[in-house]
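Box 3.1 A note on notation
Throughout this textbook, protein chains are presented in two layers. The first layer is the amino acid sequence; the second is a C-alpha cell string describing backbone geometry. Keep the layers aligned when reading.
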Amino acid sequence: MRAFMEKPSPLAGHILPRPLLLLPRRVVFIATLFVAGLILTCFRLAAARCDEDQGGAPRPYCGFRSSSSSSSSSSSSRHDDDDALPSPAVFADNDRQQRQRECAAFPDTSRVLLIMKTGASEAYARLPTQILTNLRCVSDHLFFSDMQQTVAGHFVRDSLDTVLPSVRLSNKDFDIYHRQRVCDADQTACNKGYDVGQEGWNLDKYKNIHMAEKTYAQKPGYDWYFFVDADTYVAWPTLMPWLNTLDPNKKLYLGSMAFVANYPFGHGGSGYLVSQAAMRHMFAGRSGVANRWDEYITHQCCGDYAFAYALGNETGVSVQQSWPTLNGEKPYTIPYGAKAWCQPIVTMHHVDPEEVAELWSWEVASKFSHPIRIRDLYHAFVERKLRPVRNDWDNLCETTSYLNASAYHYSESELKQAKKGELSALELMAHRSFEDCRRACQSVDSCFQYHFRNGICSFSDTVRHGKPVKPEMKEHEAQWQHRSGWIVKRIENWVKAHDDCGQEVKYPVKGGGWLT
C-alpha cells in the first residue's frame, strides 16, 4: 500500500490523476495470471495427449510425455524420458545402416582409384552431393583442387603447389589461385566482382598432369586410375564389368576422343581411364615429370589435352576412343538414336547436384543389378516427359537446318549447318514459321524432332530432351522465341523396334583392341 499512499510529485499536474493509474496495473496483473493459467493448461493437455496410445504404442517424439503412474515424478525424470529428438549417435547409426543397405549390392571397386578434380570456387557446391551419393560405396578416391581444403570432412589436395615458381608467380592465370590462398572470408565473398568462371578455366589447365603425378606418388598400387570432374557421374555397375575385360598391365589410356590441332585426347569431363602400366611408365622412379610441362601448358587451352600430349611424349601411349561409354552428355542432353542406344554408359558430364542425387536414387532402386545402357536412361528420364510441343525450350537439334540466307544475318556455323542442294517444296518453306518447320520435319522420314527460332528451322534424327530457355521480351517474341517439337508417334515406333538390345553388353574397347 505504501506505493499508493506516497506524496504526489510536484509534476503531478502534468500526469494523469492517481485513481486512473490503478486500473491499468490491475488489468496487467489479472492478464498475467490468465496467461500463466493458459500456458499451464496447454502443458497439461500436451502431456495427456502424449500418454494416449496410438495402435498400442505411445506417441513417438513427444516433448511432454509422462505416464499416469509417474504424474508426481520430478521434472528431471520427465527430462530423462523426453524423446523429442534422437541423439546424434542415433542419426549416425541410421546412416550406417542405410549405407550398408545401399552398398550391399554395389560392385567391388577396390582395383580402381577415382581422382576427382574441382576448384575452390565450386568445391562446396559440388563435392558434398558426390560424397553422399555417387562416392558413397566407392573403395577409395582422391579430391584435387586449386587450394587445399576440407569439404564435408574430406581432404581436398592442392594440385598446383608444385607448379614451377617461375610459372606460378608471374602468370595472370594464377591470379585467382593467389587470391584464394589469402582470402580471410568465404571464397564467394573474396571472388565477388571477378570473372570466376573465366579465371577458373584459365587456371584449370595446369592441374591434370600434376594431379596424375601426385596420385601415383601417393597411391601407386591400383590397377586403374579414373580421372573425372566434380560434375561427372560414374555408373560403377557399368564400369567394373568393362574393366574385367581389360588388362591393366598393358599401357592403356581410354577416353571420349576430342581434338586440339588434330591431336587426340580424352575429354576430361567425360572421364578418362589410365592403366597401371601407363601410369608406371610415366611416373615410376622419375621426378619432376609434371614440371617439365608447366611452361608448355601456359600456351595451351586445356589440361586434358596437355595430359594426353605429355603422356604420348613420355610413354608413346595414345587415347583409345571409348565414346559413347565415356560420355560428355547427361540424360536430358544425350542424343538418343542408333549410335547411342544399346551401348553401355559409364560417365555423364555437366550433371548438377540435383541430377547426381536423382541418378543415384535410380541406381539404388535397381540395386546396381546390371550395367546401364543408354536406352535405360531414355526410359527412366526422358520417355515420360516426351510431348509434341514445348515453348521457350531448346531441344538441341543439330542434324541439319533450313534458312533464308538473304533474309537475316547468320553466323558462319549456322550457314554451314544449313542443308544444301535440292530441297522439297516443304523444305523450301521450313524457315518461314514453326508450323512450316513441323510440316517439313513430318515429310522427312528420319526426322524425330525440330526447333524453330529467328527464321532457322533445325531437324534432328536423334531424340533429345533439351533444356528450357528464358522467354524473350514481348516485342521480340515472334522472331526470337525458342520453340521445339517432337514427332512423338514416330519416336515411339522407333523405340519399340529397337528396344531389344540382346543379352551381351558390347563395350567400345576390349582386351586392348577395338571392338568391331
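The two ends are 106 Å apart (CA to CA). The chain has three domains: 2-81, 109-326, 386-498.
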